[in-house]
Please model this.
Amino acid sequence: MADERTSLITTGGPGRAPNRAMLRAVGFVDEDFNRPIIGVASLYSEITPCNSHLDRLARKAIEGIRTGGGVPQIFGAPTASDGIMMGHQGMRYSLVSREVIADSIEVVCAGMNHDGVLAVGGCDKNMPGCLMAMARMNIPGIFVYGGSILPGVGEHGESLDIVSIFEAVGRQQAGKLSEAGVHKIECESCPGAGSCGGMYTANTMSSAIEAMGMSLPYDASYPAVSSAKERETFVAGQALVALIKANIRPRDIITRKSLENAYTLVLALGGSTNAVLHLMAIAREARVEWTLADFDRLGARMPHLADLKPGGKYVMFDLHKVGGTPAVLRALLDQGLLHGDCITVTGKTLAENLANVPSVYSKPQDVVHPFDKPMHASGHIVILHGNIAPEGAVAKVAGLKTVTITGPAKVFDGEEACAKAIAERKIQAGDVVVIRGEGPVGGPGMREMLAVTAALVGQGLGESIGLITDGRFSGGTHGLVVGHVSPEAYKAGPIGVLKDGDIITIDADAKRLDVHLSPAELQARLKDWKAPPLKASAGVLLKYARTVGSASEGAITC
Model:
């Protein structure tokens, strides 16, 4: 049988002697040209604690690939820190970075004709960006999550994380916390390397990817600073060589059934609304038919079980202590809620991977509630439609006592205007806050609003107001908030013509988002609407604004 390694396009035959000469200069020997050549995409950087330890993990992956019989080629891919960019114009680059990561990995691996790719990432957009590249190229691939940060310890022994300090800012604005108190929380919230500790976007997406089968078991729950994470990364390198030999590719793994598994775990754990955006984008790259209706269908059958932040009280390390993601997957499989026959990067099916894993319910614990006493009886992420969101919108109802509100609109063009009003205590109980002009094109970049929502929670308004936006929310956000409103304001969406005082209803039970205007009045406003100039005039933001699609379809670039 002929050797079908893709890398032979680069290295095979007499005509490729110049190519081989350059590779010899970086350490290749004769035998290496007879082995699979594998790209190792390291998203290491000193920009964020999520990624500050990934160089060490990438080296472990290289060792694993070598011992497995492959030839590793490490290269860098960019990352940007959502937590540090939050609350200012830098957040416009967050979702853009997902596309840049995917494109960067494609450029290197496709350009070098790698036989496979192992990607090591930590911050929020690393996970979907890496998976989008793998699905797009469809060469054997494995993702390794850098792992979750350990919790910080508060003054009274309570666990702290990044959301603790965002909410502390709101408490100070409300006169409930001194500046010294804020400083104490600031100093303890992020004690070391690893991604944000609650079931925010990083832990949500790493959990989804594990359930999807594109990472090894326990990848999502091993802490960042643990020898277990290093051992797992080494084994991932070996496993990738085996995948190449077996010719198991991402599109063999990423299917409708495995996407259902991924989103089912997101629902069980109370994950971020960003999962809707990112899973949609991964599905598009894998050429799998997937729509907002699929999220809604799965949400109707799957209860929210895990008492994890932001809607609950525990962090990822607590889940790890009671068996981690595999223990939850085993419980879901036992309940008939997963497709156990899906192939994974181990070369085995999901059910085979879980055969010897005890269910999370096999011993007493209170991190994951039983099925008959869930945190929420159905999916905590709800897809809304209505005259404000004809193409859909996404709400998260985890931990909320009330999931409906009708009240007067307070409309803001952009996050900064809203943040100023919050700081000046101009938002009152009963208001429905509208932040528009923050969509994929209008932002551009679809900013997250954690600084805004956390300040409102800190002021004690988390349960008494509503908030809607054509932008996004961090996985750390909680409260009655609706994001991804589509069409966005810049694309003549109805959110763009709302006015102060309009009466708006958010009804998560009925899955509705409506303004109390007659169809004639709404159409008259839309007819008079004119698109504002793009906020970006050059560079990557302008390129993004010109090519990005609707949030209702994953906000991917064409």
Remarks:
- The chain has a mean pLDDT of 95.
- The chain is about 40% helix and 15% strand.
- The CA atoms of residues 251 and 286 lie 6 Å apart.
